[in-house]
Amino acid sequence: MARSTLTLAASVTAALPRIGVTGVGPLSENAAGRFDSALARLEDGRDVVVRMPADESSAADLAAEARALHALTPGVRSLLPFAVPEVVGESGSGAQRVLVVDYLDGYRIDPAHLPKGPGYAPAIGTALAAVHGLPVSIVRTDGLPVRTPEQVRDDVARLLDRADATGRVPDGLMLRWRRAVETDELWRFEAAVVLGGATSSAFLLSDDADGVPHVVGVLDWAGLSVGDPAVDLRWLASAPLAADDVHAGYAAGGDRSPDPLLRERARLYAELEFARWLVHGYDEGESDVVADAVALLDALADGVRGDHIVPDSRADIDDAMALVERVPPTAVTPIDTSIQTDAYDPEAMSLYLAAERDREANAEALAEALASDPVMDADSTDAFDLSGLRDPDEPGATAPIDLDGWTGPRDAPKEPGDDEQPMDDDEEEAARASRAALRRWGVSDEGTRAGTDG
Fold this sequence. Notes:
This protein is α+β, with helices and mostly antiparallel strands. The protein is built from 13 helices and nine strands. The strands form three sheets. Strands 1-2-3-5-4 form a five-stranded antiparallel β-sheet. The chain has a two-stranded antiparallel ribbon with strand order 6-9.
């Protein structure tokens, strides 16, 4: 049962015994029910936020938050272009821990509502780059978690082993993730100070006199550690429209070496939240959580079929047909994702919605292509090997196919002296099937490139 605001006000006096409380009110922190929180006014005029764990499982998170805020010394804070909450007082331990921090004014935007274009998205990306640019010594000095790229990779492999052991992850999805773990270049990144998976709602914004938004504060420091910067960008799977602008602000605001596969790892981490949700359900024996996770995994597997975390350059018939099969005959029914747990990031549950949008776009493109060519035969692509359709100047790479310049056997120019012979029914059918295969390959290839950008 959630604590009342009066109970939380009394807890402030326990953490600050010599300072009185003159007022208290509710505070919504978008913390997924992990903490009981309130906004209190002290007798010296300061506004503070008081938090207590909602249960034993969230007590560790509040303890980690306090530890991280203490690690951010005045010298470290001076390196940041925004404010960070300061610890005003604390008391107790476990589920009775009380943490009081100063109140930072500003507004926040949930990932699903983050708009594209200049303004909010680039500002958040720039602020995140500032966090990742902090010296890693501040984390090592205070004994906070430090993970090398090799350790991060091993952690992912162990999670896959646990998820695979449940027998409930679709084979295609597990193969996709295993292939990513085995791709060496994906894990060649520079470890950095990270928030540990914060979303856009961790950033407080304010508008200047001209109405231009900028980040004035950052909350949610419980995951402060050294690790993969991509973990702090996994939430962009829930904000596909703003992803490009967040990445643009991130690139402009940082001075770190470019990370060419940052987006790919962020996408992988977002997908792996579904695996964590499944493992959590099995570990806790919660059948409803397992059922929810399995439904989400099935929807995700359907949305990424034929795709890879790190795209390769193969252009054989298997890949071509896999891309065609990404367009399903019916849409996946939306799933209730209201169940939440600290072992899983609820923000990532909307990942499959982005996959649905990609699939709908592919379906529309394919429908337009079918409508534009009355002789297309959707069942005639199996008889053709498209593996040879590559750019001769770039061996092994998939090149766009110029459909306008391609002509079937009936339109091919004849050399002098060639005897013109009428085409029999089988030859004419083969020509029609060949044009259908090439056109469908072109549509699927375009849809895949668009879908992997986010």
